[in-house]
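Problem: given the chain below (102 residues), write out its structure.
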Amino acid sequence: MSAPDLPGWQKVHRGVKLWVGTSYQVKVVADRAGWTRKIEEAGGLLVTNLCMGPGAPFAARGMRVVATNSPRSAYYAPGVEHLYGSTRECLEAVISGRWRGR
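Solution.
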């Protein structure tokens, strides 16, 4: 999914956190393209090299539910409920504050 395909550059719903995980190399491109700034202005974070395996920080940071497009994240991150869907479904949930995915 590319930036023009996103459901608008809207704000992250109050009470919802948006973490976009990527590699350092992709973040450099996002920084140069202005996407990192847009994500941050919307209330999200673009994070690099965050391990989605055991020990992922979700539960420790008080999160109870995680929506993800990553089967690996859904399998390995303990202590939280996982909602699995497409990137679009995850972003729509971040904006609306409601899960409409599968």
